[in-house]
Amino acid sequence: MRYSRPMPAYEISSPNNEQIKRLVDLRDRRGRDAERLFLVEGARLFSRAIAFGLEPVEVYYDPQRVDASSHSVAVSTSPKALERASYRSRSEGLIAVFKQMDLSLESLQLPDNPLILIGEGIEKPGNLGAMLRTADAVGAAAFVAVDSRIDPFNPNAVRASTGALFTVPLATADFASVDAWLKRSDIRLIAASPDAETDYWKADLTGPVAILVGSEADGLSAGATQAADLLVRIPMSGVVDSLNSSVAFAVLAFETLRQRSV
């Protein structure tokens, strides 16, 4: 005789529960900004957030898939309720709520000889997440999103970062503010441009430096082009005339790491 596993008595069972409706609202930027909160989905990302010292405000989990009972703010939640709250087509069994981090330039604490990575006009959550992963991989002191159209707390950006959002000091600002901040900190600005005369590997990328890549659609802004201490190019010999911005970003970031490691 077969015995089915008994269903747990969920603390939240209905997809129409008010707390579930609030999670749905937090998928939208307006809702996130109003409460200064953001969502993390799945046990893997959740565990990384916890490992790097973030404290959850709320945790909703399916005890048949994930054990989050050790957290005092955890609430057992039915699969149907979690699926309604999830921004993906299927829930991963856990959705946690965290306070948004301070994204001001003033919040960044720079070490001696810092490497700053800057993305201007980032248009896609996936690119932002990939850039944060690169920043984590090269040990950047900070990542700055300049005039970005993407909210760093967008669920797709959070997921694409695979946890780098929690590990890399991050700021968002307009270019004029970033330029003034770099000058006050005596940090050189190296920007990528297809019209530059200097190949990127020939540039001196040691010392306090900020590496800037523009958007895929528009490239560098006029302000960034004029403010850069040096423009560098990534030579291309094929038929395509540009790289994905996150790829160009990674090429320059790892060349900077190579030079600084010699």
Walk me through the topology.
Blueprint: H1 18-26, H2 29-35, E1 37-41, H3 43-51, E2 56-61, E3 74-76, H4 79-85, E4 94-99, E5 115-120, H5 125-137, E6 142-146, H6 155-160, H7 164-167, E7 170-173, H8 175-184, E8 188-192, E9 198-199, E10 209-213, H9 222-227, E11 230-233, H10 245-261
Parallel strand pairs: 2-3, 5-6, 5-10, 6-7, 8-10, 8-11, 9-11
Antiparallel strand pairs: 1-4, 2-4
Helix pairs in contact: 1-4, 5-10
Note the main attributes of this structure.
262 residues, seven-stranded parallel sheet, alpha/beta, elongated
Briefly summarize what is shown.
The protein has 262 residues and is an alpha/beta fold. 34% of the residues lie in helices and 19% in strands. It has 2 domains: 18-99, Ribosomal protein L30/S12 (60s Ribosomal Protein L30, Chain: A); 105-261, 3-Layer(aba) Sandwich (Alpha/beta knot).
Description:
The protein is α/β, with parallel strands linked by helices and 262 residues long. It folds into two domains: 18-99, Ribosomal protein L30/S12 (60s Ribosomal Protein L30, Chain: A, 2-Layer Sandwich), CATH 3.30.1330; 105-261, SPOUT methyltransferase, trefoil knot domain (Alpha/beta knot, 3-Layer(aba) Sandwich). 34% of the residues lie in helices and 19% in strands. The chain contains ten helices and eleven strands. The chain has helices at residues 18-26, 29-35, 43-51, 79-85, 125-137, 155-160, 164-167, 175-184, 222-227, 245-261, and strands spanning 37-41, 56-61, 74-76, 94-99, 115-120, 142-146, 170-173, 188-192, 198-199, 209-213, 230-233. The strands form two sheets. Strands 7-6-5-10-8-11-9 form a seven-stranded parallel sheet, with helices on both faces. It has a four-stranded mixed sheet with strand order 1-4-2-3, with helices on both faces. Helix 5 (125-137) links the parallel strand 5 (115-120) and strand 6. Helix 5 packs parallel to helix 10. The longest helix has 17 residues, at 245-261. The chain is elongated, with a radius of gyration of 21 Å. The model has no long low-confidence stretch (mean pLDDT 93).
